[in-house]
Amino acid sequence: MVFRSSNITVDMDLVRQIEAKYPAFLFKQQLTAFVEGLYGMIRDNVKKELSSLLSHAIQVPRIMKASMVRGRSFGSSSLPRGRSFSNQGSYWQAIVDNVDELLKILQENCVPAIFIRKIFTQIFSFINAQLFNSLLVRHECCSFSNGEYVKQGLAQLEVWCGEVKTEYVGSALDELKHIRQAVGFLVIFKKFRISYDEIVNDLCPVLSVQQLYKICTQYWDDKYNTESVSEEVLEEMTTLITKESGQDTSNNTFLLDDEISMPISLEEIADSMDAKEFQHIAPPAELVAIPAFQFLKS
């Protein structure tokens, strides 16, 4: 279960009796605080479980290394149909299983679709940041084989998203654009023939010059012994980095930030909900037993 290890501290001030003077306003305040707290709890627990998996999912397991270096790939042709993936992608399969379990729990508890979409958008943004940042700071991850491995893992997530209704995942896949473009670059042959304009306009349009330079200078091919980009391309990147660093000192990091705010308001949730969806849903017995929640019976 995604939430079994959660330790939630309830602020009793949030559940105090509503004063009669401004009942609607105070209730809205309390409800907003509760929803924000619940959202943060779900987000933090999922991130905690995914973090350890992502640290392994960025790099090819050692047991796979020998067969891959000999030229045996693990692309879609070597995987069985459907979502029964081999042990080669066990970390990625665990990631897919984790988000799938989360979706089922949210659906079983009648969480509004817009709330679910926002959660998955932020979770996929977290996956993107964790994998991409690891790629930039860990030299051993910028290899051809790792590019193949991560690319196939991202394809598993894409398959899962394709099996889920759009109303639940929305455009969450778009949050993976940095890592998808980065690994797409890692697995391209004949990098030394690619111009700078082709890289920034066609291959990796969302990556900054600093990020591209880091990937290009760390790249190594453990499979085909191919070269990285040409010296001319690296020199052009160096010139642009120097120019940009002199103009803007506020944004000199190449790492992605992890968004932690709740990207949704209570009004958005309320506007998207239909009361008819909850007509046949029985309220929790724990709430019905409390006198203040007797209205749930009606």
UniProtKB/TrEMBL annotation:
Residues 12-243 form the Dilute domain. It comes from the Eukaryota. InterPro entries: Dilute_dom, Vascular_dev_regulator. This is Dilute domain-containing protein. It comes from Zizania palustris (Northern wild rice). The lineage of its organism: Eukaryota, Viridiplantae, Streptophyta, Embryophyta, Tracheophyta.
